[in-house]
Design brief:
- By secondary structure, the protein is an alpha+beta fold.
- It has one domain: NADH Oxidase, CATH 3.40.109.
- 35% of the residues lie in helices and 18% in strands.
- The strands form 2 sheets. A 4-stranded antiparallel β-sheet has the order 2-3-5-4, with helices on both faces.
- Helix 2 runs antiparallel to helix 4.
- It binds flavin mononucleotide (FMN).
- Flavin mononucleotide (FMN) binds next to strand 4.
Length: 184
Amino acid sequence: MATLANAHAVIEEMRHVRQARLYRPDPVPEDVLNDLLEIARWTGSSRNSQPWHFVVVTDKEHLRQLSQLRTPINWMADAPLAIVIVLNGASEMSEAYDEGRVTERLLIGARLLGLGGGTAWFAAPEEERRAKEILGIPAERTAHSAVVLGYPTTLKDHRPNANTPGRKPLSEIVSHGQFGASKA
Ligand SMILES: Cc1cc2nc3c(=O)[nH]c(=O)nc-3n(C[C@H](O)[C@H](O)[C@H](O)COP(=O)(O)O)c2cc1C
């Protein structure tokens, strides 16, 4: 497999993939959306089951209604677009893994295409039920998150209960050989 001439530039961009919550009002261009949906389509999944369906939401009223499911996702109301990830509902554990993989690909793809994205989570049963009702998703399917997309105005967490930024150092999260052991 060819090594990209600009692999380090891509890695540097991946390192800067952050949760974007505030966006310019500009729409996401059709070709950019299609690139992202192609990235999503080619995500690997358990037994290649491809257990997903993607609902592209640009309707302002639907975005507003989804944003009201939980206070921590109220920023979704002003986003130009969201991709709601619908899963078959056949296998909770493997589909949760597959959902994480496809989400991360969308977030990385968005960053590489000059956009920003953020996860919006509506996992409590009543929130999920309402999300499915808003978008006409069959009740037996799973739909508890969206990747919200747009051109970000900031990558800061503007919410009153903002998460602590940054990441743990490698020394805290990596072992060598045995759990808890440092490099010889
Ligand atoms: C399972 C999951 C649920 C999340 N739910 C929300 C959410 O409801 N609202 C929100 O603003 N961010 C949500 N996030 C985004 C996280 O807050 C974000 O990934 C984390 O704070 C790291 O942000 P950073 O990459 O900008 O440092 C969620 C992320 C994950 C993985």
